[in-house]
Design a protein that fits this description.
The complex is a heterodimer of chains A (529) and B (76). Chain A is an all-alpha fold. Chain A has a domain of 180 residues. Chain A is built from 19 helices and no strands. The two termini of chain A are 16 Å apart. Chain B has one domain: ACP-like (Non-ribosomal Peptide Synthetase Peptidyl Carrier Protein, Chain A, Orthogonal Bundle). In chain B, 55% of the residues lie in helices and 0% in strands. In chain B, α1 packs antiparallel against α2. Classes of the chains: A mainly alpha (529), B mainly alpha (76). Chains A and B meet through α12, α13 and α14 of A and α2 of B.
Chain lengths: 529, 76
């Protein structure tokens, strides 16, 4: 049951809201939890056991760490000053053991379910290449929905308890709700316990203003998915599925179309998720902030899938950055090689695991790994040329805040993004490489308007609908980027304008949404991760 | 505090550390600047900065950094 389906929007969500509202307040968390587990069961059947297992493991590991912390405090209070460091170290070691044990079990389950067949396939390929008979059989493994998302949330929660950022949760139901809350279980956003758990637990009554804001947000998400993403899906499937037939401008256009499709779909899904949460009075974190306004690849990743970026920064980048090996390198580098070389080395050491994990997290495919490494190289190149770039700007007296210069930087970032997404979407790494090279063969812009695009399942009216949808999304993006409506958003507009917007969205989804012959209901891309 | 200001200026002398209150939130000091700062602070003040301290609130201004240093020194 995906978030954009009628079953979810017209049955599941209203039923959850009505039940939530009619039961007494202290029972509401049970309603949310019950519906969350029902949602998971409807999507993944008995695999719901994985979510329950993760919740139990996370709960007991964090309670164990809290118990060790308490023991440590008690022992410290009666200890002599000289012994305090030894006691602290001893308990810290034990806590670290519990944390690492918990993380390793969660990652082992994720790795087994998600990457086992990838390893088997690659070992078999290697054996075959070296003339031996492959003997490993592929396993039939079913992946529970959202495992990559709730596993990260669970790891983040345990690490926060270990670091004393939050106390361990003693109520199993509250933790279960944080890990399994149905609007965000399938595609995120990846929430931190300190920002979300209390709002979930508060169980405020359903309010008119939240219902209205939630509905509008859901409609906006449906608009992006059904008017733009589901249409572009048709062309993207055709070109990426039969890439040998195409080259030049068509392949380049397909990369652009896929990037737009992915953005409209993933951000549209987030709109539905955030809107659903809002109906219950829960503010889930934003996952996108006008990513196509980014002036560099680094900025793009601060605006695209933000909660994943924040997670990697907090739980991979910083722990690696303050590890002994990176600190030692930094000291050595600054002393003996200079600031520039030290920064380059430190950046490489800290960024490599982040982008390796980012690539692997998306799935068991070489093209995902390449995608991670692609951004690693791009970001490293950005850091490497930064001093030269600054010097050039100074020498040529360029105003780097001037509109023309910003537009050039934005366009450069777009090329980086489109190229990355081409490899991300391609059927495999080899196919991605072939598609990339084919862009430079027979590059003829005329192909974009000589009718070729009309042979791929979409007609002129479809392209106009896509263009109109993109134009509306771009205008909304500009309004948000310029903060023109402030915190209140649509509420700042006068009543008639607001209603025009509401009806506009409803009719756009009903009339322009991709339905009927030639279209199929398209699954959410990120639900597969 | 003077020692800290010296370290900060060595890392990036183009930033007005006396005025800036959102070094991290406004992306004035990047992550790599923070890493360089951490190892300098550890060496100079004899403290150990763990991953748990790597939050914007501890690095958003010179005062916040100084406050964190004092707190970690007291916990030694």
């Amino acid at each position: 049951m995906a978030y954009h389906t009628n079953v979810y929007l017209l049955l599941f969500l209203p039923a959850a809201l009505i039940t939530y509202q009619i039961v007494p307040q202290k029972m509401r968390w049970k309603v949310l939890l019950g519906y969350s587990y029902l949602f998971f069961y409807l999507a993944s059947g008995k695999l719901v056991i994985y979510l329950a297992g993760t919740t139990l493991l996370t709960y007991y590991a964090s309670v164990w760490m809290a118990w060790l912390k308490m023991q440590c405090r008690q022992e410290l209070s009666g200890a002599e000053k000289g012994n305090k460091a030894e006691i602290k170290n001893r308990y810290q070691k034990e806590e670290r053991g519990v944390l690492l044990g918990g993380i390793l079990i969660l990652l082992a389950v994720l790795a087994y379910l998600k990457y086992c067949n990838f390893f088997i396939q690659n070992i078999n390929d290697l054996l075959e290449k070296s003339g031996m008979q492959p003997f490993l059989e592929l396993k039939v493994l079913l992946l529970p929905i959202g495992i990559s998302f709730y596993t990260l949330q669970a790891i983040g929660y345990m690490a926060d308890v270990y670091w004393d950022k939050i106390p361990a949760e003693r109520h199993l139901g509250k933790l279960a709700l944080f890990l399994g809350f149905f609007p965000q279980i399938m595609e995120g956003p990846i929430c931190s316990y300190s920002n979300t758990a209390d709002a979930l637990w508060k169980c405020e009554p359903v309010k008119g203003e939240n219902l209205s804001a939630g509905c509008t947000r859901i409609l906006w998400g449906l608009f992006k998915k059904m008017v733009v993403a589901d249409r572009l899906y048709v062309v993207v499937c055709e070109v990426f599925g039969h890439y040998e037939k195409y080259s030049g401008a068509i392949v380049a256009a397909a990369a652009v179309f896929y990037t737009i499709q992915l953005y409209m779909e993933f951000s549209g899904c987030m709109d539905i998720v955030i809107g659903s949460g809002r109906m219950f009075g829960i503010c889930l974190p934003e996952n996108f902030r006008q990513p196509f306004a980014s002036e560099s690849a680094a900025e793009f990743w601060r605006r695209w899938h933000m909660t994943l970026g924040v997670w990697f920064k907090a739980y991979v980048f910083y722990p690696v950055s303050v590890s002994r090996i990176v600190k030692r390198w930094n000291q050595y580098g600054r002393k003996h090689l200079g600031k520039y070389a030290a920064k380059l080395g430190t950046s490489a050491l800290a960024l490599f695991p982040v982008w390796l994990c980012n690539g692997i997290w998306h799935g068991a495919r070489w093209s995902y790994l390449f995608f991670g490494m692609y951004y690693f190289v791009i970001l490293m190149a950005g850091i490497a040329v930064e001093p030269v770039r600054k010097k050039l700007i100074e020498m040529l007296r360029i105003n780097d805040r001037a509109l023309y210069f910003r537009i050039i930087r934005i366009l450069k970032t777009w090329i980086i993004i489109f190229t990355g997404e081409l490899f991300f979407r391609a059927e495999g790494l080899q196919e991605g490489r072939q598609m990339f090279y084919s862009i430079f063969q027979h590059f003829d812009l005329q192909k974009l308007w000589d009718g070729t695009l009309l042979t791929m399942g979409l007609d002129c009216a479809d392209y106009y609908a896509v263009l109109a949808g993109c134009a509306v999304a771009a205008i909304v993006g500009m309004v948000k980027e310029g903060n023109l409506l402030g915190e209140d958003g649509l509420q700042k507009l006068c009543l008639p304008v607001r209603w025009i917007v509401y009806y506009g969205l409803i009719f756009a989804v009903l009339i322009l949404g991709a339905y009927g012959i030639g279209y199929q209901q398209v699954d959410m891309i990120y639900a597969g991760f | 505090m003077d020692t800290l200001m010296k370290i900060l200026r060595e890392i990036d002398d183009g930033i007005d550390y006396e005025k800036e209150k959102f070094l991290i939130d406004a992306h004035i000091l990047d992550s790599f600047g923070v890493i360089a700062l951490v190892s300098e602070i550890e060496d100079t003040f004899g403290i150990r900065i763990e991953a748990s301290e790597m939050v914007p609130e501890n690095f958003n201004s010179a005062e916040a950094i100084w406050k964190m240093i004092r707190r970690l020194q007291e916990n030694l």
